[in-house]
Amino acid sequence: MCGIAGTLNLGSGPPVDPEMVYSMLEAIRHRGPDENGVFSNDRVGLGSARLSIIDLAGGRQPIHNEDATIWVVFNGEIYNYVELRRELESAGHVFSTQSDTEVLVHLYEEDEQGWLLQLNGQFAIALWDQKNQTLILARDRLGVRPIFYTLRESAFYFASEIKSLFTQPGIRTEFDPIALSQIFTFWTTLGKRTCYRNISSVLPGHYLKIRGGQMTEHPYWTLNMNPASDSPQPSLDKAAEHLLWLLKDAVRLRLRSDVPVGTYLSGGLDSSSITALASRHSETRLKTFSIAFGDQAFDESAYQQRTNEFLGVDNDAIHCSHVDIAAAFPEAIRHAEMPLLRTAPVPMLLLSRLVHEHNFKVVLTGEGADEILGGYDIFKEAKIRRFWARQPNSAFRPLLLRRLYPYISALSYGGDAYLRMFFGRNLSNTDDSFYAHRLRWQNTARCLRFFSPDYQNEIKGYDPLAELAESLPAEFKLWNPFSQAQYLEIIIFLSGYLLASQGDRMGMANSVEGRFPFLDPRVVDFSVRLPAEHKMYGLREKAVLKRAMKDQLPQETLRRSKQPYRAPIRSVFFGGDSLDYVSENLSPEKIRQTGYFAPESVAALIAKCQRGANVSETEEMALTGILSVQLLHYMWR
Predict the structure, then answer these.
(1) Where are the beta strands (DSSP E) in 183-225?
(2) In which band, very low, low, confident or very high, does the pLDDT at 411 lie, cut at 50, 70 and 90?
(3) How far apart are alpha carbons 19 and 16 in whole angstroms?
(4) pLDDT at residue 216, rounded to an integer
(5) What is the pLDDT, as a whole number, of residue 303?
(6) DSSP E strands: which ranges in 24-97?
(7) Which of 552, 556, 551, 540 is nearest to 303 (CA)?
(8) Residue 12 scores a pLDDT above 60
(9) What single string gives the DSSP state of each residue in 406-446?
(10) 269-279 vs 301-311: helix axis angle to the nearest 10?
């Protein structure tokens, strides 16, 4: 794992100064504290800040091929590098290291068109082809690892994190109003957009090619939600058997490392499944890491303890108080490099710090299972609402929704009338492509009312949902409703938020690499194309995974309903130990100075929080988003 950065001369500028690339690497040293390396010539500069995990002694980057005509820097892991290396050596390629990185240059030589599809891994790659004077930036299928880029005058810059780009003169830290509109609707941006003007992200499953001054972007993989039609669908038992085989192999590959590997353990089904499978490969007691909350509404430590005892693993936990989360929030924002509408990434930052303190660099986690196997309550919500829509006057059917969200205060004190009003909006519009998500997005978008009149004028007439609709694949309408909802959850929530703000950025802040067996390409392809009833049987989520793990985990873990990972918000910023930066950044003077939000609206929200009144979910999201925008405004100026 590494941080990468570099530049390409698009015109007739002077040769690349390697010190400039080193300065970019210094800004992301946390991603790779073990060593730096730079290759530069008259056209290109490639840099790597390395976190050494495979071939500790010999895997220094940049790495080149036999005649030094192809150079690569690489952030990530190629899990099937052993098998690929054997094939490449059989084809006559000569290796000089034992690293997975070197596979990339030889694989590109061998199969320039299809090399990326052969990779089972998580990666952001920058490859320089000297003969063809071509720079290629490539990103893994689901966007586990980030890579950003920008153009300034006659130079192209790229880096694993945006803060690295800000080290270069003339690259500005100006917010993009359209991007903020998207974040305050979806929790993330759409497509290649970032929250900063003129700074873009390579799309998941795509590669960017720059040759002869021309830049083009191409997909090499797309998410296919079509049910498998070339053979009869397997029974639930057969599907569970095959899923278990795939997961076992995905875990085996992700345990390849020259340093110790641990797991994150939340106490839920997903992380417990990965921990159970990983423990079978461990010659000593597997090390696991968990989060415990002082607030019982968020704490899962009792379930963690039961799983630890059942599996016989060695667990350490970080205990997060409200003060801990508040104190670490600015650091989390600095690493996320985008506004957050949730505090949930902060405990993940603290957890990766615990991992680092125990001298671990690698952890396996359960991310991705809810998206590919239908684990979220939003899938149940859509199913219940469709059931209700068939008898819209039913008094009983909408009550099924009450048990889904006990943590949303408005549903508790608002009564049945509020429940019917909230979930009954657009109830009968079941042909809506966004049926499962529209309520959530509309609810989040209410945060936009806190923006200042000037900023609202900048986004006037813009509809984030319309832009999203235009980007959907042509076959989207042909998929069943469950697959449509899964697709949206994968490309927006998983790729745009969970793997980014809550995953890569919080782990790499402490030089910790997360690995995700559920996102193995074979597991994803098999899972998303299973029949919907194998994923959600009635209202029983992830049925096929529970069947697959029935002999691997304690029964209470298998029977337990999904509990979403959350962290407190209002009590963090307006509890008994509120920190000075909160009041300072939310003061009318600072709100007026930055100009993004309406001082009167923000002041009213703060007063409501301070007097302990009931605060809605939307207001909590707005509070977090406003504070994070304010913090970001001053961060790199």
Answers:
(1) 200-201, 206-211, 214-219
(2) low
(3) 9
(4) 97
(5) 87
(6) 35-40, 44-50, 63-64, 70-78
(7) 556
(8) yes
(9) TT-HHHHHSHHHHHHHHHTTTTT-TT-TTTTTHHHHHHHHG
(10) 20
DSSP letters, 543-585, are HHHHHHTTTTS-HHHHHSPP-------HHHHSSTT--HHHHHH
Q: What is the mean pLDDT of residues 188-201?
A: 97
Q: Measuring CA to CA, which residue among 393, 171, 541 is closest to residue 161?
A: 171
Cα separation, 204 vs 141, whole angstroms:
5
Confidence of residue 226 (pLDDT cuts 50, 70, 90): confident
* Spatial separation of the C-alpha atoms in residues 398 and 604, rounded to whole Å: 33
What gap in Å lies between CA 439 and CA 269, rounded to an integer?
Answer: 27
Cβ(497)–Cβ(337) below 8 Å: no
- Write the pLDDT tens digit of every residue in 340-380: 999 999 999 999 999 999 999 999 999 999 999 999 999 99
Q: 471: how many CB neighbours lie within 10 A of its CB? A: 10
Q: What is the pLDDT of residues 90-110, one digit of tens each?
A: 999 999 999 999 999 999 999
Residues paired with residue 200 on neighbouring β-strands, in sequence order: 149, 193
Separation CA 174–CA 161 (nearest Å): 16
Distance CA 589, CA 514 (A): 40
Residue type, 33: P
Asked if pLDDT for residue 413 goes beyond 60, the answer is no
What is the rounded CA–CA span in Å between residue 447 and residue 180?
11
Neighbour order of strands in the sheet with 44-50: 35-40, 44-50, 2-9, 155-159, 148-152, 200-201
DSSP 626: H
Q: Collapsing DSSP states into helix, strand and coil, what is residue 592?
A: helix
Please state the length of the chain: 637
DSSP 3-state assignment of 39?
Answer: strand
Which band of pLDDT confidence, cut at 50, 70 and 90, is reported for residue 416?
A: confident
- CB-neighbour burial class of residue 309 (10 A; exposed 0-12, middle 13-18, buried 19+): exposed
pLDDT in tens, 273-326: 999 999 998 778 999 999 999 887 788 888 899 999 999 999 999 999 999 999
Q: What angle do CA 600, 572, 612 make, to 5 degrees?
A: 60
- What integer pLDDT is reported at residue 602 of this predicted model? 98
